[in-house]
Each structure stands twice: as structure tokens, then as C-alpha cells.
């Protein structure tokens, strides 16, 4: 009887491993600084799916994905209820379950951690592109804003960084499995040299190499993460004006958000005039810092002009505007103290179910809140602002999750990056810290200081090595001023673009192809 109970319980061990692995991966993400938990997570997940059938791989992958993504994406349910949050997490977890199938399938191959890591990166590449233009939030790389793996981002971007973490984890899992197998075999061996079996086993050596190689690669790359000025420095001020209320109705009171940012800028101007602070070269406002269209509303136009003239330097202003075609844009406007509005950048990557609403009539069946989503039109190209001699690359909020969008700005000549954001909608959730982690990874990936002005916080100045120089609290007015290096060289990751991702995906696809060929060959030989 007891043996039967043990047998039944043993069946749940892989499921328990998958769930624990998913929870560990979630816990590895900010606001916690526990990036080392991610390899442990993948070690457990690798052990759970090792040698399993496709159906089991799917189920275990789904359990892993739900345990990971449901808590990670809980901020998407703020103010709109649990349905959108759980639906999004479930949809993303289904894509993770496909990775579980693939990893289970290639786990029968020699050197399986290599192929399994490629399969995982392929699944992340898919999630970054589909459905509805993709949702890269929660990529493994975005949970690594510090630690030994982070320098890999400067070599191959987020795909290589994620691959290194996953390979280390799967290598660790393979090592545990192989040691267990060799130990069992040696216990039946009466030879006096059986103690040397661990040293002679090629499987143990390969698994150990997969575990250690990414760590060594990250450590070797660390000294090459460049942070020094190449074109002088820029003194940058970030304005966090705050909002009158949290949630979706943060801008319900007309012009309040704009007035808050003007007020904080005027305080800065007064300090400059009093000699308390040195005049900055430029000022950055957050996304949606003007809650009314300054092109249409003269009072908004005049208030922004007043603020720019008071500080005497250009301001980058975030505003929702109506373009010439009558459709809304999420726009950044370069506002000169003498000439007024100039160059503009329209957000290119719009947030589905927020700034756009795919299949609106269908989703209206489930929730009336779909009509609160906008009908924004995306911008078409990267635009770098030349602000008093400093070239500022703009990446608006959600866009920071997309590799190509950030890379385009650096290739356009950005010397520093600005990620203006409006997180008031998500209140005091973990979303702000998750996004800040992305910005830190992008800093290392492209060798640029990253400025993060946010309406309600957390605003931050991020060095090119990913460390945070300054940051604010949440839902408070604040100003950050920093001298940041202007950099012109491009990291290897910036230069090679999507090639590392393509190569890593090819490794995963190649492993799947090899597994298919082996399976067919085995069936023929059995026949």
C-alpha cells in the first residue's frame, strides 16, 4: 500500500518542480535583486521535462509558464480587474508550453542543454512578435539588470543574455541528472577504480562546461562594458511632476498633470536663478506630461513655453496630440525656449489593449472596458533629438521591451537614451520596477546612459554599466540632475543587430530537426 502511495506521489514530482521553477523565475525579477535564482529555476525546469513525452512537456511548460507569468503580470489587472490580467498571462503561458514541448523533445539528444536553450530563445522570439505585434515582457534577460551574466548583453543583446542564463540553468540540471546516473552505476561497480567514474564521465564534463561557460563569458566580458565619455558630458534634468490621482483616471482633471510638471520645472528655474544648482543643458519630461494637446490648446502651449523660457534650455515634452489626419499620436516634442515646438517623435510600438484595441467588438463581449482603450496610430521612424548639442534617442515607455526599437535609436546617432514613461495607470505595482530593469539592461546592451523621466515615478538616471546613479520615489514631485557621458561608439550588440537571436533560434530549430530525424531513424530500425 505504501509503495503505491509513493508511486502516485512520484508522478507529481515533475509538476511540483515545474511550478517551483516558475515561481523562482518570477522571484528573480525586480523589485527583488535576485538574478541568480533564474539559473536555478531553469535547472529545476530542465529536470522536470527531461526525457518526457511531448504531451507531458506541454503540460509542464504550461504549469511553469503560469507559475511565472501570473504573478509577474499582475499589474495588468490594476483598475481593470482580473480578467485581462489572467487572459494575458494564460495566453503567454500557452506560448511557454510550446517551449516545454520542444525542450522535452530535444532533451533526448546529446548535449541537450545547448539545444534546449536555443528552443527557449526561439519561444521568446515568438512571444516578442505574436500575437498583436508581440509582448516581450518577462524575457529572461529583463530579470538580469545586475549580476555576472549582464555583460553578455553588450555582445549579443537580450537574446544572448537570456541564452547564457538558461544554458547555465539547463547545464546545472543536466549535471545533477548525470551525477545521479553515474552514482547509481558506480554503486553496482565492484572495481577499485569506481571512484574515478565521475572524473571520466563525458556527460558530467559537458554538463559542467555548459554550467560554467556562461558565467566565465560574463566575467570576461565585464571589463569591456564601456562607460566613459566620448563626446563630452551633458547635464540633464529629469522632471517628475506627479499626478493628481492614481489609476486610469490620472488625467481626469484637465491640465493638472501639465501644471504639475510646469510647477516642478519652475522650481528648478528658481534654484538656477538663485545659484543653488547649475543650469542643465536640457530637460526631459515624461510621457503624457502634457495631458492636453499643446498644438490645439493655447493655454498648454503657453505654459510649456513659459517653463522652457524659465530654465532657458530645450525640454522634451510628452503629449497626446491629434495629428493632421485627425488621429491621435503618443508624441514627444522638442520644445525650444525661443522657437517653441520643433522635432517630434511618435511612439512606434503601441501597447495592445491600452493604446490600441485589436478585435474591439469581439472583446467587448467580455468587458466594457475595451472602449477605454485608445485608437492611436504608430510612428514610422526613429527620431533623435538634437538638444543643445546632445543627441537624445527616444524610447517611449513600452517600447523599451522591443530590441529593434531601442537599437534603431542608437544606430541613428543617439549619445544618450531617454525612456519617458507614464506609470500612473498601474499605481504602486511592480510594473515600474520591471520596466526600470529593462532600461538597465538596455544601458549595457548599447553602452549608453539611460534617462527615465516618469510622471509618478520611479524616475532614474542609469549609467552605461546598468547601475542606478539616482532615482526618485513613487507618487511624489521630484527633480533629478546628473552629468552623463555622451557616447558615440557602438557595442557589438548594436552593430550585429538581430544576428545573435537568429543564430540562437537556429540552434533550437536545429536541435528539434535532429530529434525528429533520430526519432524516425529509430522507428525504421525497430521495424
Features:
single chain; 527 residues; alpha/beta; Nitrilase/N-carbamoyl-D-aminoacid amidohydrolase; 2 domains; six-stranded mixed beta sheet; 16 helices; 12% strand; globular
Structure description:
The protein is α/β, with parallel strands linked by helices and 527 residues long. It has 2 domains: 245 residues, no CATH class; 260 residues, Carbon-nitrogen hydrolase (Nitrilase/N-carbamoyl-D-aminoacid amidohydrolase, 4-Layer Sandwich), CATH 3.60.110.10. The longest helix is centred in the N-terminal third of the chain and has 35 residues. The mean pLDDT is 91.
Runs in which pLDDT lies below 50 for 5 or more consecutive residues are: none
Taken from the alpha-carbon principal axes, the silhouette is globular
Give me the CATH fold name of the largest domain. Answer: Nitrilase/N-carbamoyl-D-aminoacid amidohydrolase
Instruction: Label the CATH architecture of the largest domain.
Output: 4-Layer Sandwich
SS elements, strand count: 12
β-strand amount: 5-15%
Strand neighbour order, sheet with most strands = 5-4-3-2-1-12
The tally of structural domains comes to 2
According to CATH, what is the class of the largest domain? Alpha Beta
Give the distance, in angstroms, between the N- and C-terminal Cα atoms: 39 Å
What's the alpha carbon Rg, rounded to whole Å? 25 Å
User: Any idea what the CATH superfamily of the largest domain is called?
Assistant: Carbon-nitrogen hydrolase
Helix proportion range: 40-55%
Alpha-beta content class: alpha/beta
Amino acid at each position: 500500500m505504501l509503495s503505491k502511495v509513493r508511486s502516485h506521489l512520484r508522478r507529481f514530482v515533475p509538476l511540483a518542480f515545474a511550478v517551483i521553477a516558475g515561481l523562482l523565475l518570477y522571484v528573480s525579477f525586480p523589485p527583488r535583486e535576485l538574478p541568480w535564482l533564474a539559473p536555478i529555476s531553469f535547472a529545476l525546469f530542465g529536470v522536470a521535462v527531461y526525457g518526457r513525452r511531448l504531451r507531458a512537456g506541454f503540460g509542464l511548460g504550461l504549469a511553469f509558464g503560469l507559475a511565472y507569468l501570473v504573478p509577474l503580470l499582475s499589474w495588468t489587472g490594476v483598475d481593470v480587474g482580473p480578467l485581462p490580467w489572467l487572459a494575458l498571462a494564460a495566453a503567454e503561458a500557452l506560448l511557454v508550453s510550446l517551449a516545454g514541448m520542444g525542450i522535452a523533445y530535444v532533451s533526448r539528444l546529446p548535449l541537450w542543454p545547448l539545444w534546449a536553450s536555443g528552443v527557449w530563445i526561439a519561444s521568446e522570439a515568438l512571444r516578442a512578435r505574436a500575437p498583436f505585434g508581440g509582448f516581450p515582457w518577462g524575457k529572461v534577460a529583463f530579470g538580469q539588470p545586475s549580476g555576472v551574466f549582464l555583460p553578455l548583453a553588450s555582445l549579443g543583446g537580450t537574446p544572448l543574455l537570456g541564452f547564457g542564463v538558461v544554458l547555465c540553468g539547463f547545464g546545472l540540471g543536466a549535471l545533477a541528472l548525470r551525477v545521479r546516473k553515474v552514482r547509481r552505476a558506480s554503486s553496482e561497480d565492484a572495481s577499485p577504480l569506481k571512484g574515478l567514474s565521475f572524473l571520466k564521465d563525458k556527460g558530467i564534463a559537458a554538463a559542467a562546461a555548459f554550467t560554467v561557460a556562461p558565467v566565465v563569458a560574463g566575467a570576461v566580458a565585464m571589463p569591456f562594458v564601456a562607460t566613459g565619455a566620448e563626446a563630452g558630458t551633458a547635464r540633464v534634468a529629469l522632471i517628475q511632476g506627479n499626478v493628481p490621482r492614481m489609476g486610469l483616471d490620472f488625467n481626469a482633471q484637465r491640465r493638472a498633470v501639465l501644471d504639475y510638471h510646469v510647477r516642478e520645472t519652475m522650481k528648478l528655474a528658481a534654484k538656477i536663478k538663485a545659484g543653488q544648482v547649475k543650469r542643465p543643458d536640457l530637460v526631459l519630461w515624461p510621457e503624457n506630461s502634457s495631458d492636453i494637446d499643446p498644438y490645439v490648446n493655447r493655454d498648454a502651449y503657453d505654459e510649456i513655453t513659459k517653463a522652457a523660457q524659465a530654465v532657458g534650455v530645450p525640454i522634451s515634452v510628452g503629449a497626446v496630440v491629434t495629428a493632421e489626419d485627425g488621429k491621435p499620436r503618443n508624441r514627444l516634442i522638442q520644445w525650444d525656449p525661443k522657437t517653441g515646438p520643433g522635432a517630434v517623435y511618435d511612439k512606434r510600438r503601441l501597447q495592445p489593449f491600452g493604446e490600441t484595441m485589436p478585435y474591439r467588438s469581439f472583446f467587448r463581449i467580455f468587458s466594457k472596458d475595451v472602449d477605454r482603450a485608445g485608437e492611436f496610430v504608430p510612428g514610422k521612424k526613429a527620431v533623435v533629438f538634437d538638444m543643445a548639442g546632445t543627441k537624445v534617442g527616444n524610447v517611449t515607455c513600452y517600447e523599451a521591451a522591443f530590441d529593434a526599437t531601442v537599437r534603431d535609436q542608437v544606430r541613428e546617432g543617439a549619445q544618450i537614451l531617454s525612456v519617458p514613461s507614464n506609470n500612473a495607470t498601474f499605481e504602486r505595482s511592480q510594473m515600474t520596477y520591471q520596466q526600470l530593469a529593462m532600461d538597465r539592461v538596455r544601458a549595457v546592451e548599447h553602452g549608453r546612459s539611460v534617462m527615465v523621466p516618469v510622471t509618478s515615478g520611479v524616475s532614474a538616471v542609469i549609467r552605461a554599466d546598468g547601475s542606478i546613479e539616482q532615482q526618485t520615489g513613487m507618487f511624489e514631485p521630484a527633480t533629478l540632475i546628473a552629468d552623463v557621458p555622451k557616447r558615440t561608439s557602438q557595442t557589438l550588440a548594436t552593430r550585429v543587430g538581430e544576428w545573435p537571436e537568429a543564430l540562437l533560434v537556429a540552434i533550437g530549430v536545429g536541435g528539434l530537426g535532429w530529434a525528429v530525424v533520430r526519432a524516425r531513424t529509430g522507428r525504421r530500425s525497430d521495424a
